[in-house]
Amino acid sequence: MNGLITTVNNLKVHEPAASGVDEARFMALVERVDNLEAELLALRDMFSNWQKNFQDDLNGKADKTALTDLENTIMMRLNDIVAALTKQFADKAETKKALKLLER
Questions:
Q1: Which residue in 16, 20, 47, 92 has a CA-CA distance of 20 to 30 Å to 61?
Q2: pLDDT tens digits for range 29-66
Q3: Is the dihedral of CA 48, 54, 60, 66 positive or negative?
Q4: Could you give the CA distance from residue 103 to residue 95 in angstroms, rounded to a whole number?
Q5: Which residues contact 37 (CB under 8 A, 6 or more apart)?
């Protein structure tokens, strides 16, 4: 334990030396990072808006069961219309029979 304390006490704190980095270049990098952060925030907001709009559109769409029910209702109505139309036309056999009776 004493050896650890001695080692810690002997550690020297390095004084910051003059770096070889140009201040203008460093400031340009800081500005570039700031711009990238701003663009990332704008992209995040744009994606969030797109996701919200997509979810709203998805919530407004009909689900599969509603579409199936609608299809069945339309098919039943079409069948009723076809059945009603076929009753309006004369039956060929009955028409021939009626004409033969009229000719007598």
A1: 47
A2: 999 999 999 999 999 999 999 999 999 998 888 888 88
A3: negative
A4: 12
A5: none
Q: Which two tokens stand for residue 41?
A: 């925030």
- Any idea how long the chain is? 104
Distance (Å, whole) CA 30 – CA 24: 10
Q: What is the rounded distance in angstroms from the CA atom of residue 1 to the CA atom of residue 7?
A: 10
Q: What is the pTM of this model?
A: 0.45
The reported pLDDT for the residue numbered 17 is 55
DSSP string, 49-103: HHHHHHHHHHHHSPPHHHHHHHHHHHHHHHHHHHHHHHHHSPPHHHHHHHHHHHH
